[in-house]
């Protein structure tokens, strides 16, 4: 058997999900320490931030989504948790 065949077989046997384990440990964005503000004044985390998001299934369409910085952070954490759950569900086969 040639070296190329051995290399190809080794690549196919190594489980890709085991090599692609990603660990996310993010901390929430810190609000700048504000000088004594009057009550009811929104913090930096309460500011609205708008982002363009691509429409799934289209390379040309996008839509605008507006949320507070805290909501964006929470949405990103939820997505990272979903990815981690999917990675944890993927069985890792022993090599050899």
Mean pLDDT score, rounded?
77
CA gyration radius, whole angstroms: 22 Å
Instruction: Compute the number of strand runs.
Output: 2
Oligomer description = single chain
The amount of helix comes to 25-40%
Query: What is the percentage of strand-forming residues?
Result: 5-15%
Largest sheet: 2 strands, antiparallel
DSSP helix count? 3
Give the termini distance in whole angstroms.
Answer: 18 Å
Order of helices and strands: HHEEH
Question: What do these coordinates show?
Answer:
The protein has 96 residues and is of the alpha+beta class. 38% of the residues lie in helices and 15% in strands. It has a two-stranded antiparallel sheet with strand order 1-2. A hairpin with a 7-residue loop joins strand 1 and strand 2 (62-68). It starts with a helix and ends in a 7-residue tail after the last helix. The mean pLDDT is 77.
Task: Describe this protein with a few key phrases.
single chain; alpha+beta; 3 helices; 96 residues; 38% helix
Question: Can I get a quick summary?
Answer:
The chain is an alpha+beta fold and 96 residues long.
Topology summary:
Elements: H1 3-13, H2 16-19, E1 48-54, E2 62-68, H3 69-89
Antiparallel strand pairs: 1-2
